[in-house]
Amino acid sequence: MVERKKEMGRDRVSRLVTWGHWFAFFNGFLAMIVGFRYLDTVGHPETWVGWGYLAISTIGHFSFLAFIVYLVLVFPVTLLLPYSKILRGYAASIATLSLCILLYDTIIYNDYGLHLSPFVFDLAWADLNALLRGTSYIITPLGILAIELIAANFLWKRIEKIHKVRRGNKVVAFVGVCFISSHLIHIWADAADITEITRLDDAYPLSYPATARSFMESHGIDSSTRPKVSSSLRSSLNYPKRPLQCTKTDEVQPNILLLTIDSFRADMVTSKTMPFFSQYGHNHQQFLHHISGGNQFNSGMFSILYGLQGSYINSSGLSQTPPLLTQILKQHGYQLGLFSGLHASQMPQAIYDDFEQIISPPNSSDAAQDIENVAGFQSWQQAQKSPWFGLINLSAPDSYDTPIGFLGIETVQSEQKLTPAQRVLFNQYRQSLNFIDQQIESIVTDLPTDTLVIITGISGKLFTSSLHEARGNLSPANVQVPLVIHWPLSPAKDVNYRTSHYGIAPTLMTQVLGCTNPATDYSAGRSLLQPDAESWVYVGDNRIFGIYQKSEITVIDRHGKYRIYDENYQHRLRKKLSVPELIEVMREGRRMYNN
């Protein structure tokens, strides 16, 4: 009799476990349906390869999540309380809560580009009224609970029939194959740089697809230099928010030169290192507290030309849209010329579409390539008969390069505390800047005096050979850059308030191109000619970004982990993040999208 009771108990538990597996699979299917909401944010795949990967990764990922929830929260209760009525009600409640959390995550991700974490939850809780609209947040959970209870009872009543069909092993095998295949395909896509697949990396919560990075690095291939495309992509972008009103004036419009220098630190501009540029800054408008929009070439150049913060850099709405600045310049009859080396990973791809691109051929020396770019610009601008806008990019400082036979300047002791390797890089960097100083002199001395000249850095420079360290560092050394503007017939002036790259496009559009729209219609910045009312500046892209405030720097990664430093990036501060200001940052990152 005792054995019979034990056998009946084991049968009951076995039946409940079988039911639980099928109930978990059903909820995995519901999670897949909810998960398609993420596509409204990341955009739909454009090829069959993308759709195929999306299908198997969705099946594998959400089925795996559903099984983990069952294994952790439902299976132990099955063993402790093997009573079907209790278990069905409990499991339905857990499933409802899990799906509601997933739904909430889709809302958070759509607005912030981040998945739920303790940090993001605190942020979203403070911004709850803006996130949840109407009464759907009450009706939806009730509707999900009703579906879960119906499904739980339906499966329980038919569990014997389902068990006899013996489809369970095939379903498990199919889901397992999808899960493993999605990771194998991602390894291939990561190695081959198939962005149609890798752009979905962060789309789903708790998704950590396998990569080929460790394999590539062990074989001497630097995968960190390859473009990493974030999944925070949307198609419903309003850029600009309202049609631009830009009237062409009767005045003769000035030629414009935008000279950008890659890896150009503001604190390295001295009379010993760059004698000409140092004096040039004193003779014109010099912005002493200027911040780039990023610490990498892509995010820095994006912030200059588009005037938008880096959270938009991979937006599908910009993939075929050139900057409004260059669009309006063309409409006003300007000839646009780009003089640069090849940057294959530039995002968005349409950023230079309005330019006549004079790309110097690949060269083993960045300095030699810079010399070719300068010569190409000088020949081009002399041949122009109408107003022109020239963009020259010099990149020698990024690789500490100088041309063969360059004499340079004497080495000096750094005022900063540096390691022996950093001291070598410090002085080699000075040599490179001295070379750039000579190139700047040769460019600007040959220009007509009525040319509007803007000279700035794309990003700063960290004295390290580790690309990973440089990418994750958002210190002033890596983002604070010089900015000098020569306005024809304007007096010299030192600007002591903080400015950023986001203000360059609005300044040109309002002061030169006659655009009367408020800068908020098309930019995250304001005119450089007056202090910005915002108390913060966004620096970075989707994967890691910093918020520069008056006395602190907050660095946040794509998982919502954050660190707060003092204004010199020297000490980590033990304090909570300022939620109101972070909400402002996040709102700026979604302001250009349809809501």
From TrEMBL:
Gene3D superfamilies linked: Alkaline Phosphatase, subunit A
Subcellular location(s) of the protein: Cell membrane
Limits of the Inner membrane protein YejM N-terminal domain: 8-246
Domain Sulfatase N-terminal: 254-511
Pfam family of the protein (one): Sulfatase
TM annotation in the entry: 21-39, 51-75, 87-109, 137-156, 168-189
Membrane topology according to the record: Multi-pass membrane protein
UniProt keywords, alphabetically: Cell membrane, Membrane, Transmembrane, Transmembrane helix
A cellular component annotation (GO) from this entry: plasma membrane
Primary location class: membrane
Key word Cell membrane present: yes
Keyword flag Transmembrane helix: yes
Highest taxon in the source lineage: Bacteria
Classification via PANTHER family: LIPOTEICHOIC ACID SYNTHASE (PTHR47371), PHOSPHOGLYCEROL TRANSFERASE I (PTHR47371:SF3)
Name of this protein: Sulfatase
